[in-house]
Amino acid sequence: MQRMYSATLTLHSWLRWVVILLGIFAVMRAIAATRSRRWTPADDRAAMLFTIGFDLQFLVGLLLYFVLSPITTMALQHMDAAMRTATLRYWAVEHPSAMLVALVLAHVGRVVVRRAAEAKKGRMALIFFAIALLVIIGMTPWPNMPGQRPLLRF
């Protein structure tokens, strides 16, 4: 079980960079669409890749959260104690809740963009994807934060 946990944690760590890069790319495409041009199929593809990458990351995170992680297993069994410890609270509540909010924002943004008038698609994408990306970056366990993780895991 420890080897599966380690491999899944490594995958989750590397996928974070994929999601952040896809988010930056989707935001940049949205900025370009608001400036001088219309929403294009390439912009829509960037939005789709961001949400798909984030979905995959979230599924791996759920596997860690509910099945593999000894940290969250302990925290969920003793939630009262976990809420008094910053690191356990971060992993049991703060990180998954914030990522769920970011995931919802990304998906709602995708739906809003599809339904928006052509002139508003870029602005709507920019708003939703930028907020989702800020939440992702803000609640990623960077070094020197509660629940810190290395930038690259091998």
Detailed description of the structure:
Helix content is 79%, strand content 0%. With 154 residues, it is mostly helical. It has one domain. Helix 2 crosses helix 3 and helix 2 (41-68) runs antiparallel to helix 5. It is elongated, with a radius of gyration of 17 Å.
> What's the shape?
elongated
Strand tally, please?
0
- Helical percent range? over 70%
Largest sheet: none
- The number of helices is 6
Rg (C-alpha, Å): 17 Å
What count of structural domains? 1
By oligomeric state, this entry counts as single chain
DSSP strand (E) fraction? under 5%
Whole-number mean pLDDT: 94
Poorly predicted regions: none
User: What structural class do the secondary elements suggest?
Assistant: mainly alpha
Return the string of H and E elements. Answer: HHHHHH
Terminal Cα span:
18 Å
Which helices and strands occur, and which strands form pairs?
Elements (H helix, E strand, L loop, with lengths): L1 H34 L5 H28 L1 H8 L1 H4 L3 H30 L5 H18 L16
Helix pairs in contact: 1-2, 1-6, 2-3, 2-5, 3-5, 5-6
How would you concisely characterize the structure shown here?
The chain has 154 residues and is mainly α. 79% of the residues lie in helices and 0% in strands. It has six helices and no strands.
Note the main attributes of this structure.
mainly alpha, 6 helices
